[in-house]
Amino acid sequence: MKNVLLILLVAAASLVFSKEGDKKIGWHKEGIASLSLTQTRFDNYVQGGEDTFSWQTNIAFQFNNTQENWKWSNSGRLRYGRNKIGDEPSIKSIDEIKLETVYTQVVNKYVNPYASATGETQITAGYEYYEDSKEQISDFMDPAFFREAIGVNYTANEIVKARVGLSAKQTITSDFPQPFADDPDTEEIEKIRTEYGMESVVDVHYKISKTSLLVSKLEIFSNLKAFDEIDVKWDTDLTAELTQFISFNFNFLLLYDKTISPKRQIKEVMGIGITYSFF
Predict the structure, then answer these.
(1) H or E segment to which residue 182 belongs
(2) Is 264 within 8 Å of 15 (Cβ atoms)?
(3) Is the pLDDT reported for residue 11 higher than 50?
């Protein structure tokens, strides 16, 4: 019961400062692509140092169809980047594919029933690096995470949206079941893990100015078994255009999934690069 109350409180807290917005009928499409590059090169530099080169690309899009009695929201994100230091082989710094679809039946002005599905995986193989070797630990669709839910959502405006519902989560693996899907308490190696519980999702899409955009998503999934088994993913992007095609990008990602790691995971990425808006 405590887990249920926590999920409901997180969703409700995001709505305190919401304001009513205008409703747009029909399709609304939005997309943005960015590429960040960083290079450091040394030649006869007496203080020492190693050549470095890194790059990262980020593509995000939304296709939303709003009608009088229903709304269908679709979004996706693709991130990929690599780093190279000195003569060492390049290694990836970020790797993500995520797709989400949410169908909402409009019953009243604020609270409405919804059904949703989310899929998430990576593009290329992932490795654990040691001093003289490396070991592959993941690959495309290995693992892959899927989540389906039905419940109610609250949309006060086009900036803040939240939803809470009953949910099912599947973790699918092939060659790398550990630590993603396998249950260490059984002798059999499980390649598919299914959990049932509740989800809470809060989306913020705030245009700070004509040249600045804040996008944040907080996702919480609980299997209702234990407090420390609540999965949390908080992903925030801040983009500010410096010129028509040059922008500043900052990403903050916080993850907690006890099955994968008993400790919370944090990643920050900041850079200046090329940005192109489409649609």
Answers:
(1) none
(2) no
(3) no
Residues of the domain holding 146: 2-278
- Which are the contacts of 4, defined by CB distance < 8 A and separation ≥ 6? 198, 222, 224
CA 206 to centroid of chain Cα atoms: 17
Higher pLDDT, 125 or 24: 125
pLDDT per residue over 247-261, tens digit each? 888 889 999 998 888
pLDDT tens sequence across 177-201 = 999 999 888 989 999 999 999 999 9
Banded pLDDT at 13 (limits 50, 70, 90): very low
Pairing of strands 26-40, 52-66: antiparallel
Cβ count near 264 (within 10 Å) = 11
Secondary structure class of 124 (helix, strand, coil): coil
pTM (2 decimals)? 0.83
Three-state SS at 190: coil
Q: Would you say 221 and 240 are in contact if contact means Cβ atoms under 8 Å apart?
A: no
**Count of the separate structural domains present in the chain:** 1
CATH number of the domain at 83, please: 2.40.230
Q: Under a CB-based contact definition with an 8 Å cutoff, are residues 236 and 226 in contact?
A: no
Instruction: Label residue 100 exposed, middle or buried (CB < 10 Å: 0-12, 13-18, 19+).
Output: buried
